[in-house]
Design a protein that fits this description.
The protein is α+β, with helices and mostly antiparallel strands and 91 residues long. It is 43% helix and 30% strand.
């Protein structure tokens, strides 16, 4: 399911106009992104949680040429499935 399919499903199940459903989904996603950017953890009970993991830079190697490459520090999102979601998927 992609974002547009989620909007369509929300509109159909709640009898909302597509524009309102799009606003709800976009607001939800934007709030999650803003919270993660601020370093906060986002938890949706029964589904899972999102957090940011920071990775240090390191000296790597290009596997094709063998040259040393400096890999810069980075910040990546990390999702951890909740207990209820795991149980639901493993019925």
């Amino acid at each position: 399911m992609n974002k547009s399919e989620l909007i369509k499903n929300l509109a159909e199940e709640t009898n909302l106009p597509m524009e309102d459903a799009a606003l709800v989904v976009n607001t939800f996603v934007d709030c999650m992104k803003d919270s993660l950017l601020a370093g906060e953890r986002v938890e949706i009970r029964g589904f899972g949680s999102f957090k940011i993991k920071e990775y240090e830079g390191y000296a790597g190697r290009n596997p094709k040429t063998g040259d040393s490459v400096v890999v810069r520090p980075k910040v990546l999102p990390f999702f951890r499935a909740g207990k209820e979601l795991k149980e639901y998927l493993n019925q």
